[in-house]
Amino acid sequence: MTDIDERDQHHWFLEMNFPCSNKYDQFINWLRMEFYFFQQENGSFLTIYFPNGQVKIEKKATQENTFASEITVKSKCRKFGLKMWKNLSEFLSFIENYHRLNRIEY
């Protein structure tokens, strides 16, 4: 029998790669400010709590001096969880465009 808490959970995953640790740290700082009004916990990974769910961001080393963020959205409410996932997806797109534009030299 499945635990009722696990059965009522909805999960979504996102991932983003970073060329260096500084870019990852910048991303985390922006993310903290983007969700400033939500309760946050910073341990081995960043956890942002929202009503009926949470977002966990974990730093993973993929190659030498290359990092990835693994983002997991867990929610008891599918509608609100999808909304949070969409907001994070849009935020990641913004960050990717920012990094791409920073590589352009004038």
Write a compact overview of the structure shown.
With 106 residues, the protein is α+β, with helices and mostly antiparallel strands.
How is this fold's topology laid out?
Elements: H1 4-7, E1 10-18, H2 21-34, E2 40-42, E3 46-50, E4 53-63, E5 66-75, H3 78-102
Gyration radius over CA: 15 Å
CATH topology: TATA-Binding Protein
Question: Shape from CA axes?
Answer: globular
Structural class comes to alpha+beta
Helix-strand pattern: HEHEEEEH
| End-to-end distance | 61 Å
What is the tally of beta strands? 5
Helix content: 40-55%
Q: What's the level 1 CATH class? A: Alpha Beta
- Give the integer mean of the pLDDT values: 80
Number of helices: 3
Oligomerization status of the protein chains: single chain
Strand numbers in spatial order across the main sheet:
1-5-4-3-2
The CATH architecture can be named as: 2-Layer Sandwich
Provide the domain count.
Answer: 1
- Low-pLDDT parts are 1-6
Can you describe this structure?
The protein has 106 residues and is an alpha+beta fold. The protein has three helices and five strands. It has helices spanning 4-7, 21-34, 78-102; strands at 10-18, 40-42, 46-50, 53-63, 66-75. A five-stranded antiparallel beta sheet has the order 1-5-4-3-2. The model is unreliable at 1-6 (pLDDT under 50).
